[in-house]
Amino acid sequence: MQHLTAPEVAALIADAGDAHVLLDVREPWEFQTCHIAGSVSVPMNTIPGQVDQLDRDASIICICHHGARSLRVAQFLEANGFAQVTNLTGGIHAWAQQVDPAMPTY
Questions:
Q1: In a domain, 11, yes or no
Q2: DSSP structural state of residue 83
Q3: Residue 6: which domain range?
Q4: Which strands form 20-24's sheet, in the order they lie side by side?
Q5: Using an 8 Å Cβ cutoff, are 70 and 30 in contact?
Q6: Strand partners, 86
Q7: What are the pLDDT digits (tens) for 31-88?
Q8: Which residues sit opposite 3 in a β-bridge?
Q9: Is 34 a catalytic residue?
């Protein structure tokens, strides 16, 4: 598993955004408050039931509010055969501070 900062993830997306699945594991209300363009909302508690719908060969970047929930999901995905898993260190909060200051925070 990789751990990347918000600017590092922003650079990855800029270079090859479509090549990465931006998996936002926050609750729906959190996702509605703010999210990274192109991200997919799959709340953490639904991941075990949807794991077989995710591409095990895809590059998946896990996102949450501060990075703790996404870390747990990234660990779960790795344990279930996903090879290219990244955790956004600091979560959407770090993204708002370091990449997109116009993004709402909560």
A1: yes
A2: -
A3: 2-98
A4: 2-4, 84-88, 59-63, 20-24, 40-41
A5: no
A6: 2, 61
A7: 999 999 999 999 999 999 999 999 999 999 999 999 999 999 999 999 999 999 999 9
A8: 87
A9: no
Q: Which two tokens stand for residue 20?
A: 């990465």
Residue 98 has pLDDT above 80, yes or no: yes
Number of domains in the chain: 1
Spot the catalytic one: 64, 92, 94, 96: 64
Helices (H), 1-106: 6-16, 28-33, 47-50, 68-79, 91-98
One-letter amino acid at 53 equals Q
Establish how many alpha carbons lie within 13 A of residue 81's alpha carbon, considering only the half-sphere containing its beta carbon. 8
Note whether residue 14 is domain-resident.
yes
Residue with tokens 């990347």: 4
Entry pTM: 0.95
In a domain, 103, yes or no: no
